[in-house]
């Protein structure tokens, strides 16, 4: 995040007595290298929708792509508030991170080109995207690109010292 460190607060009631707050840099590193994220959106009728997806952390935000007719895109059109999660599915080690924020479309072709390069560098040539008219294009299909800047985030440390850290962004 360009040197920015949000305020970190340890939730003592949910943490080992010897735990310390996790630094944002640790969570940011996890968000950068994670291969898979879970996106939670809300359907127009209020029911939740959760789906796994790939993404790229860049410019202090997590970015993901979806087809305009997919459920998550239709949900975001009605309500852009989301939760993104990533981490490890073990109790004995690791860190889980939960990011709350607002999904906003990225339509600037120059910025999308930079993101497309980052996507391919992270996931390989099968995830090559061209950029056209404010979208990613691959094999004749277009995808909308969204960014989520954290408004609030939580880190759940696991292992010998369970911890819960809350990061507040301004």
Automatic annotation (TrEMBL):
InterPro entries: F420H2_bilvrd_red/Heme_oxyg, Pyridox_Oxase_N, Split_barrel_FMN-bd
Leader peptide range in chain numbering: none
Domain of life according to the entry: Bacteria
Gene3D superfamilies named in the record: Electron Transport, Fmn-binding Protein, Chain A
Pfam families with a match to the protein in the record: PNPOx_N (PF01243)
Entry annotated with the keyword Oxidoreductase: yes
Keyword Cell cycle: no
Limits of the Pyridoxamine 5'-phosphate oxidase N-terminal domain: 27-125
Keyword terms: Oxidoreductase
Residues forming coiled coils: none
Protein name: Pyridoxamine 5'-phosphate oxidase N-terminal domain-containing protein
Organism, as annotated: Streptomyces gelaticus
């Amino acid at each position: 995040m360009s040197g920015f460190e949000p305020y970190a607060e340890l939730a003592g009631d949910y943490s080992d007595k010897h735990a310390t707050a996790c630094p944002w840099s640790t969570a940011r590193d996890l968000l950068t290298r994670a291969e898979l994220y879970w996106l939670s959106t809300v359907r127009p009728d209020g029911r939740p929708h959760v789906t796994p997806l790939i993404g790229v952390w860049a410019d202090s935000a997590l970015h993901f792509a979806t087809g305009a007719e997919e459920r998550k895109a239709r949900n975001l059109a009605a309500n852009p508030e989301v939760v993104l999660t990533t981490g490890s599915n073990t109790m004995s080690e690791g860190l889980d991170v939960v990011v709350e924020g607002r999904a906003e479309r990225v339509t600037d072709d120059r910025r999308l080109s930079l993101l497309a390069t980052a996507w391919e560098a992270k996931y390989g040539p099968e995830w090559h995207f061209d950029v056209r008219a404010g979208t990613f294009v691959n094999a004749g299909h277009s995808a909308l690109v969204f960014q989520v800047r954290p408004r609030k985030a939580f880190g759940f440390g696991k292992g010998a010292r369970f911890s819960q850290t809350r990061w507040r962004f301004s």
